[in-house]
Structures are given as structure tokens and as C-alpha cells.
């Protein structure tokens, strides 16, 4: 690991010198530092800023402090009651030990990654811009099918973020408020940047507006627990007179960012709440998919999970 | 830096790069927590940080000054006795992490925390629940079948 200096942040105003990074739970950053993929000169610890509370917003909804641990958020009574999709997504992610350290802000800012990004000795446009992307011809079974570029096909691994993007969450930083949908970037020709945040911009909280819909998260993975998603779906929906009157859908493990499925939502609104409608909506979203040699299986997988989750929510 | 481990305060002069796991093993001589994968994937390094189970390999020691740390050397819990009674290990390498994780997990259950397989009104310590809640700890000997009843019986005490 490269040497660095350490200090604790004293206020929430953000700001970092070049080469410095914020440290929260560290479950991703410290790992990347050990691997030589992240090489900060200085760490600024933001875990002692008191950003560890969940509060109710006056107009309804919740404000989740950036330092709230994933385990505390998953178990929070208001999250479990009003946003089961969020609690379920959190509990589907990582392990009990990791959830106890990982924070809300840190979970969002974990790196979009693949095995080549995690190996400092390999070419990767994300950790060494311009060095190429071995994943396109190599191991890409679990990589992106939507929104990728010739420069990067990595996926954002968070489960929590998929639920939050379906919930129209807003990220509050030391400088501004950003809809979560716009926080993460697609790779384009600059895959080194995962988000639109400026250097030194500090996430302080995440606001989740009222939902008022039944919701659920379904994650498919290669083993039953403690594995990244191969595909996941966050959904919320309500049916009246047999028709879908409101719906939210987001997909995980399909893109460089948590993927809000707005095309599918639009295709579904007002349609009969049937398996045929659900599959057609998924197809509408996946029409833009560009699968690679070994990950086209994600298309029928997402399609079937969308139908299964929506059938569960609307039957 | 100042670390509080098993109720004892230690003043250490170590590099900021030192993980909590390395501080415990290499500087304090507490070799119960094991370095398995060193990337948070196996759970052998599990300790309790302010009572919560965590992977000590992914934590910088310098960031945990003054936070009470409990290692297997400081644990006195029925889980230990039940692991022995049920033969909940073979080579023993993962055992300190398994036990610290189980102690932390039982505290989570007592606080009503759900898991990914929890259903309203169902037993939070069914076989499926224990397996899900303990999935952050790997055992290459495959002693899981005996750990599950050991943990359940410890919980009843």
C-alpha cells in the first residue's frame, strides 16, 4: 500500500487537496488501496461528523445521513415499514460484517468495477486511462449489457443504490443536491469517473421521498448469499381495476450505474397487470441492450425477474 | 495511536497503513483473529468493534482509536462452549472469526434485525437464518453442519 497521511474531518463543508480522499467505512477503499488500485496521498476520515441519523422530513419521506451504516439502515423501523425494497436490497448486499462498517454515502461511492479494474497489473481504462479494456474479449460474464462503451463494460455493484434510484432518492452534498439517477455516470470515453461529483465534494445525506406503493427487491446471484448480483430488480407498483396505475423499476448488475428503467415504466403505465404486460415492458427497456459474447443470458434473466417481482407485488 | 482492546488501553507507534488485523496480530500479539483472504471475503479476521462484528482486515487501525475492540481472546460466551460440544470445526483456522461473528450475530438477532431470508413471525434462528446470517464466514473444512446447531443452542442460553 502506498503511504498516506490520515486526519479526521472537522466539518461537513468538504474540500480536499489534490490526491486526497474521504474515508468512511473503508470496506471498498481500503481494499482498493491494498491492491494498489487506489493510491491516495491523504485520507480524511468523515465518520466522526455525526452524519449517522435517519430523520423524517417535514413533507414526508426520510433523510438518511451519509454515515448511517448499511446494517442500521436495513433494520430501521421506518425503512422496513415504508420502503421494504430498500431494506431488502441492503440485506441482499455483502455480509453482516461488511454491512456493519459500510455507510450510505460510501455504498453509493464504491467503485464501479470488474476483475480487470481490481488488478493493478492489468490494462484497464478505468484505473489506467488509455490502456484498453480486456473485459470486452475476456471475462465479462457478469458485466454490463446496457449503456456500456468500447472503453468500459464494468458494472456498479451496489444493491442499495438500485433500490434508492427506484425511490427517486436525492443526494445532498457539501455543494448541492443531485437526483441519485444523475449521480453515477455512464462510462463513455471517460470511464475513470464513476460519478459527477467534483473532487472534495462530500455526500452529507440522501433524501428519500414518500413512496406509498408496495415495493420489493429481487436479486439473482451465483450462490445463495454473499455474492454480487448477476441481475437484480427493484420495483414498486400499484394496480387498480386490473391496470397498473403507478410503477417504479430499476435494474442492478446491468450497467455502469444503477439503471432506472424509465422506458419500462412508461410502457407499463395504464396497461393490464399481467405477465404479458410485465414482459413487454422489460423488453421495451432491454431493446437498447448490447450484450457481449458471454452475458446475453442477462436479457431473459432480467425479463423473468421483472415479471416475477411485479407479479408478486400486484397479485 | 491509541487502541482499546479487550478492555486494555495500548499506545502504539505504527504506520497509518496498518490494518486493525495487523495491529492486533503483529503489534499486540493477539493472534486469534486470522488473516485468511485479507480482503473481507472469508471472515477469518472478524472481531467486535464497539460490540459489532466487522472484518478487521479492511479497517485501518488509526481510524478506530478509542473505539472498544473485542477479539476472540476477550470473548467469554456460550458460543465457544457449544462449538466445542458440537464439534463445530475441524482445522480451527476460521473458528475465532466464526465465534466472534456468531456473538455479534446473536446480538443483532436480539435487537430484532432482519436478514435477507427473514419472514414476519418466523424463527430468526432457523437453519436457513443462521446460514444466511453467517454467510460472511467461510470454512474450508466444511464444518457448517455442526456450527448451525452450536449457534442455535448457544442462543438459547
TrEMBL record, chain A:
Domain FAD-binding PCMH-type positions: 1-213
Keyword Ligase: no
UniProt-listed InterPro entries: CO_DH_flav_C, CO_DH_flav_C_dom_sf, Diverse_Substr_Oxidored, FAD-bd_PCMH, FAD-bd_PCMH-like_sf, FAD-bd_PCMH_sub1, FAD-bd_PCMH_sub2, Mopterin_DH_FAD-bd
Keyword terms, alphabetized: Oxidoreductase
Protein name, as recorded: FAD-binding molybdopterin dehydrogenase
Organism (species): Paractinoplanes deccanensis
UniProtKB/TrEMBL annotation, chain B:
Keywords: Iron, Metal-binding, Oxidoreductase
The keyword Metal-binding is assigned to this record: yes
Ranges for domain 2Fe-2S ferredoxin-type: 1-75
PROSITE patterns with a match to the protein in the record: 2FE2S_FER_1 (PS00197), 2FE2S_FER_2 (PS51085)
Cited SUPFAM superfamilies: 2Fe-2S ferredoxin-like (SSF54292), CO dehydrogenase ISP C-domain like (SSF47741)
UniProt cross-references to InterPro entries, sorted A to Z: 2Fe-2S-bd, 2Fe-2S-bd_dom_sf, 2Fe-2S_ferredoxin-like_sf, 2Fe-2S_ferredoxin-type, 2Fe2S_fd_BS, Aldehyde_Oxdr_Iron-Sulfur, Beta-grasp_dom_sf
PANTHER family: ALDEHYDE OXIDOREDUCTASE IRON-SULFUR-BINDING SUBUNIT PAOA, OXIDOREDUCTASE, IRON-SULPHUR BINDING SUBUNIT-RELATED-RELATED
Record protein name field: 2Fe-2S ferredoxin-type domain-containing protein
Protein's organism: Paractinoplanes deccanensis
Source organism phylogeny: Bacteria, Bacillati, Actinomycetota, Actinomycetes, Micromonosporales
